[in-house]
Design brief:
- The protein has 320 residues and is of the alpha/beta class.
- Helices cover 33% and strands 24% of the residues.
- The chain contains twelve helices and twelve strands.
- The strands form two sheets. An eight-stranded mixed beta sheet has the order 6-7-8-3-9-10-12-11, with helices on both faces.
- Helix 8 links the parallel strand 7 and strand 8.
- The longest helix has 18 residues.
Length: 320
């Protein structure tokens, strides 16, 4: 039996608007096992980052309307701040999408990494700085003894992202959440960052929860894939299966919109993700779906098993 390190159970996230309560994430459930690489895919606004922030308990206290987030069988949502500080940044870490807004511009990168070590390992400032230099070596920043004195603005985007990775792995977390860490980087640097994360996962034997809209990255690195749409999981399966045998129209649309053979036209998904304030009745994808039929308007489909460890939220999943 595979041990679940992290278990998200029926997580729903809501925010109050002037007119109504907006349910932005709806009954999301998934597990992350030891040394797992789970890719979470979907367009902007589908709830990927909100789910990650809920795991880190970085949302307003009233945002999570229902559900549990179990880390080593203890509910993170029930943790008090003092207890949470012991695991957040230590046992569970997160790399945010834009390092320039995550790093403090008035402190050196060395001081910011050392602060994580001092907080979680109770070591001296000198010991923390020595470890910081070693961490910068691990993430392949040249001349780390000199670069620890740099401020974020003195580094390139790729180097700042490596600093964020160094900070995130400083305490050898059991789970690392990476929220689109390669989005703002050019293709060459993206590949370097992914190779680095892959090697660190293997070396530190940690689990990786990787949020992205890049299916190419998911295809190459992820063991399992979870596709989200309008705050819901619409498909989940082992990575190879989801690319060879997609069982939800949205996943099929994402795959068909990827660049393929020369001369073959792309097939973009028509329309856009519906506004949270005006979600359609029944299936939330039906307004963009070429497989839509009348029954899709009446009831939102359940997430059902359509194969070995393969789930889909579509009443026509077995036909696709």
């Amino acid at each position: 039996m595979v041990h679940s390190l992290l278990s998200v159970e029926n997580l729903s996230i809501s925010f109050a608007s002037e007119k109504q309560l907006l349910n932005t994430v709806n009954e999301v459930s998934f597990k992350v096992s030891d040394q797992d690489f789970l890719g979470i895919v979907g367009e902007s606004g589908c709830g990927k980052t909100l789910t990650a922030l809920a795991i880190m308990k970085l949302l307003p206290s009233n945002a999570v309307s229902s559900g549990r987030i179990l880390f080593e069988d203890k509910d993170i949502l029930a943790y008090k701040d003092k207890d949470l500080q012991k695991i957040r940044g230590g046992r569970i870490s997160m790399i945010f999408q834009e390092p320039m807004t995550s790093l403090n511009p008035v402190f050196t990168v060395g001081d910011q990494i050392a602060e994580v070590l001092i907080t979680h390992k109770s070591i001296s400032a000198k010991e923390a700085m020595n470890e910081t230099v070693e961490l910068l070596k691990v993430v392949q920043i040249p001349s780390p003894e000199l670069r620890v004195k740099d401020y974020p603005h003195q580094m390139s985007g790729g180097m700042r992202q490596r600093v964020m990775i160094a900070m995130a792995i400083a305490c050898k977390p059991s789970i690392l959440i990476a929220d689109e860490p390669t989005t703002a980087l050019d293709v060459t640097i993206q590949a370097q960052i992914m190779e680095l994360l892959g090697s660190l996962q293997e070396k530190n034997r940690m689990s990786l929860l990787f949020i992205t809209h890049d299916l190419g990255i998911v295809a190459e690195y992820a063991g399992r894939v979870m596709v989200m749409y309008a705050g819901r999981i619409v498909e989940e399966s082992p990575a190879q299966d989801i690319f060879l045998h997609p069982k939800h129209p949205y996943t099929i649309g994402l795959l068909e919109s990827l660049p393929g053979k020369k001369g073959v036209k792309l097939k973009p998904i028509p329309g856009q993700v519906p506004n949270t304030e005006s979600l359609p009745s029944g299936c939330k994808f039906r307004t963009r779906c070429r497989y839509m039929m009348e029954e899709c308007r009446l009831k939102e489909p359940d997430l059902i098993h359509v194969g070995n460890n393969h789930l889909s939220r579509c009443i026509r999943a077995m036909e696709l």
